[in-house]
Structures
1.
Amino acid sequence: MFKILKYSFYDLMRSRWSYIYLAFYLLLGLVLLFLNNDLSKAVITLMNVIIVLVPLIGTIFGVMYYYNSREFTELLLAQPLKRSSIFLGQYLGVAISLSMSLILGLGIPFMLYGLFESAAIWDFSLLLITGCFLTFIFTALAFNIALSNENKIKGFGFAILLWLFLAVIYDGIFLMSLILFEEYPLDKFSLVGTMLNPIDLSRTLILLKLDISALLGYTGAIFKKFFGTRFGLIISFFMLFLWVVLPTIRIVFKSRKKDF
């Protein structure tokens, strides 16, 4: 698996799209810091970009890499290699390369602007950690979709639909549910609903860490009471970890049963 991971990683590192992805974050970080000259405000602005963009890029890259490397994958399947090792290696290669582009692209500008001497270092670290989690989650979901659909158009369509649902549609349904059942106690419902969506969970963690949960009103107070505690933080990261593990396990089982 490690040899395939290494090959996939270096293959993506040679790809121009990886450099474009790196350059985008590098330029974004430099522009934000040049305009704001305040690390804390830049982190808040970056949150809105990362929460939406990172899942989209992870989804597109995951599906695209699977379909583009299909012939090479069939060649590997003819060798005495485990199917799970092949697909896990490819998945980890894509996820790690995207995470590195994110960390380097944003880390370099912030370090140049004195990140290590600022109190915003912990907020920025949480931003990068949640960004890496989202990269691994949506890349794994993209591989699952690609493994389940031979047709490229269907695969891309389902992948974009999944991102659209979790990034936009889910929030609309969630808010409508809160409005419709506002007469009932919705504390636990709102907490569970947030944890069932990795994008919402990541956004809530960052908002609470930035101490601007008051903008969320009563809901923010509930989130602060739970997610603001050490136990809530552990549960939140455990849920993000679970969002990574479950799709990865499905990649293993799906690759074993799939007829190539």
Note: The mean pLDDT is 82.
2.
Amino acid sequence: MDTFRDIIAERRTYTANKHTHSHGYGQLIIPLQGELEITAGPKSLMMNTETLLYVPPSCEHTYHSVVRNEFLVLDIPHFMLSSIELGDRGIACPVNNQWKGIRYLILNELERGPEHGAALKELFPYISHCLVQEQMPKSIQYIHEHYDEPLTVQKLAEMEHYNRSYYSDWFLKETGKTPSAYIQEVRLSKAKELLRDTNLSILNIAVQVGLEHQSSLTRLFQQYERVTPSQFRKINHARLS
């Protein structure tokens, strides 16, 4: 079982032997030198120094390399990942200046020794945000950035230059959810982070995720989690103690 609590970062090399596996944690593969041929789910690519890849949990992937290579690999515990944000498909993106900066920070943490896990845990929300930015249509990105504000389907549809009816059908095909359900789940995900990581009141958290009343947040938790926000906080604090 994959039960580690912090992000594990390592320099890794790959051989010409093909390996196929999956694991219960996410994995971010950042190139340092050489190439890696990899298939993750339906996505196949030749990774080089210009391309990085995020592999989601439980995604079967096959990989090998026939040239000298080295990659920076982050194994990310599943509980740190949000399927709402990152989805269940691999994300490939170019190594731009933003990712070069992230790579530099991670390599610096590795040089500091075995205590890097905690520091990488602090860096990961930014890494996650960058991955989300790479894959999201404009309106879905807007939901993640403005979940604390009033959101209407009409406004979101206009961002994609669709009429409201077509947008709702398009959104369902893109995410498997209606726009309103997706917004609620994003708000729920953010509320869970605040309940785990802060001592803010339930009312304060409700307001910060775009809900006017504490009772609205309570109904949301009971619908999706079958517990109240207070019970969710107590359960998670007990797990960490």
Note: Residues 30 and 52 are 5 Å apart (CA to CA).
3.
Amino acid sequence: MAEMKRDEGGSAGASAERTARVRNPRGQGERLREDILRAAGGLLEQVGSEDALSLRAVAREVGIATPSIYRHFSDKTELVWAVLAEHYERLAASMADAGASAPADDPLERLRHQLRAYCRFAVANPAKYRLMCETWQTPVDEERLHGHPAGLLLRGLSQALTRCEEAGWRVRGTRSEAPYLLWCALHGRVALWQVMPRRKDTARLDRFVDELLGLLLEH
């Protein structure tokens, strides 16, 4: 709450922030929350880290007093994670839809579709993807870390691998690390695909997914 107290110090600035925005009618608190998320997301894209994000700047962007942010988010970490959560949820939904388009009795093919959907999402949404994977975040304790929005992606990958195991596939290496291995491999390949000066052919990403599954799973 230290930043909130510092921001309250300048009465003239706080007064200007309070009068800049017309108060939402009763029942529109969710709209204000969305405005805060949108402003925070835009600023995060510019500054690239949680530490560099200023709640005063977020409040100024929305047109509210800085303390008003704390009515919706307990601290800056919760705000940043909420911004990231929107994008992780869209990615997870895209992967789930892609998996559902594959035969229900072929878990390996469903996983293949999911991994390809991950690549497509990263390619189609470069700004959102950079925000998800390149935003520097303040370390938290292990208990709180379990609530990070990236858990949605990792749990989905783990569940997909479990379905493959139930169908007779064996995961090479340490099972608990397999979802991280998939994520790291996909992220690294997408990053190289995006920056290397060659023609952008997403078929190369599809072939990488095939190679990755061939290395990770055996029947």
Note: The longest strand covers residues 170-171.
4.
Amino acid sequence: MPKQISSSLTVLSVSDVARSRAYYRDVLGFDVTDWWAQRDGLSGLALKLHQSPDPARIYPNPPEPGSELGIDVSAYVDTWAALDSLYEEFKSKGAVFAMEPTIFADGGPWKEFVVEDPDGYHLAFGGVDGSRAHCSIDPHIQSVFLWVRDLNRAVERYSQLLGLEVRKQDRYGHLHVFRLDNGSELMLDSNGMEDVLIAKKGPVLFKLSTYDIDQAAKEAQEIGFDIVYGIQRLPQVSFFNIRDEDGNTIMICQEHTGV
């Protein structure tokens, strides 16, 4: 069965939502909106910060038996090198630590530190120094680049395709970044592309998922994408490819549940 739950968010009731948003954004490096605060995408560390109707009634988790600290949110970090880098980043921005980095022999060994937010909530960051510690390359695709000739037009079209807001803070000169829900990024880059010829044919560059293949095809055409060929319907998946005006080809795919 294909994955049905793509992400979850921990809800924290806070005494001063503006103060909390500023702390998570400016100190902990979260992407903060009116809907969530997330670090490394909604499938990374994602929270909802809700204003408590009574600022005096904030209840962080108490310690479990045998522990000195209660933990409200736990985040896993793949390697100790990444964990140390995260700690140094938080420290340089003035984060409050309820526990400095500590190595626990049982559990891997496990290394962890704990950050305290303005309401006393404790966020634990930890992990084991896994078998890939010798490798400096993180085995995750962080970003996908698409070369486009008209950046403003491409940004508008892809924002409609993905259902994402166009934000000023995501524009970097000739580059625009869409931050996707799984933590990866789609980067549209127009640098030096004004006079580049469009390739008549190219490979599929990446795949997007849909829950309604027919509606997705209708929407893509209405936005202005060309469908390279019609919907291919197989027992386990249905898919089609779209092509933008710059020659970039993308697959749209629906997995069929219960097959």
Note: The chain has a mean pLDDT of 91.
